[in-house]
Known about the structure:
- The protein is an alpha+beta fold.
- The protein has helices at residues 31-39, 130-155, and strands spanning 19-27, 62-69, 72-84, 88-93, 104-112, 118-127.
- Strands 1-6-5-4-3-2 form a 6-stranded antiparallel β-sheet, with helices on one face.
- The longest helix has 26 residues, at 130-155.
Amino acid sequence: MSISTAVSTVMPDLSSRPFQLTIKRFMHASPHAVFEAWTTERLDRWFAAPGTVMMKPQIEAPYFFEARHNGERHPHYGRFLRLEPDRLIEMTWLTAAGTKGAENVITIELSPRQGGGTELTFTHSGFPDDESRKGHEVAWRAGLDHLDEQLSDSQA
């Protein structure tokens, strides 16, 4: 995997959108497996609609994928801000309905646990209002549960 770190990044201005959420949880898979699930086409194994992921783990590289829910398509766009293999992912996150068109920032910190698995700290920042934050909190908890199940099944 080629990860570029020499590129300068432009952080979104979140000052007018102070709402955020943080979720901490244990994942059964290794930090490497979790990192790859977020930064490669493997995203379609747990979150994106199959065949819709365009993603390269490179700083400032744009990504695109679709999620499908209740028969509707939900395009997602963003770019990678920081990547430290198996340790840290920081990316922008943009959807029409979910973020109301505002560029949000997701930070995923990964730490190996003694005896196996990963301690994951997930922070999603830049929501325009508390309603959007609350809706994402419910969805992200379910999504992280699904990710853990998918990675556990693939390691079995």
